Amino acid sequence: MEALKQRILKDGKYLGRGILKVDNFINHQVDPELMDACGAEFARRFADVGATRILTAEISGIAPALMTGRHMNLPVVYARKSKPITMPDTVYLTVAPSHTKGVMTELIVSPEYLSAGERVLIIDDFLASGATILGLVRLAQAAGSQVVGIGTLVEKIFEGGRAALAHLNVPIHSLAVIERMDETGIYFVNDL
Description:
CATH architecture: 3-Layer(aba) Sandwich
Number of helices: 6
GO molecular function: xanthine phosphoribosyltransferase activity
Number of domains: 1
EC number: 2.4.2.22
Distance between the termini: 10 Å
Radius of gyration: 16 Å
Protein name: Xanthine phosphoribosyltransferase
GO cellular component, one term: cytoplasm
Largest sheet: 6 strands, mixed
Strand content: 25-35%
CATH topology: Rossmann fold
Shape: globular
Function: Converts the preformed base xanthine, a product of nucleic acid breakdown, to xanthosine 5'-monophosphate (XMP), so it can be reused for RNA or DNA synthesis.
CATH class: Alpha Beta
Order of helices and strands: HEEHHEHEEEEHEHEE
Helix content: 25-40%
Strand order of the largest sheet: 4-3-7-8-9-10
């Protein structure tokens, strides 16, 4: 998606060690118009998968997932990183490594909002190693749901996440696919 790529080139910052800082339009401050356009694009790309629910991870996945849900008229569930007292005692829980924090993070979903028979579309901000998305897949499977597609705003193809998800045999769409990043710039491959 050209608008997202241009915004990454304009405002994204390569911090080394494979980390792309996009805090001023995706991760800390959110550009609602850009996220709305991304949601519309995901809705177009996943129009035929028959999704009944969208699943994402707290917190950076919420904006693109919410806008996708708006365009697809689907509820959005996000896996929380901590269990509030309002959540039932029995929950779906898994752990996944956080690339930017360098620690293992819990992903928790209430069975009230993810149940057997759902057709789940996973939307997240990044696809790097695939570990967070595989965590979301585990949550969906624990609920008896079927993952029917995976969409990410940005994919760092050099980290192998797409290959790690290939066994799921579902469509995977990333709106901006980065081939490599270094001190000289950010380089994209064609859309996948």
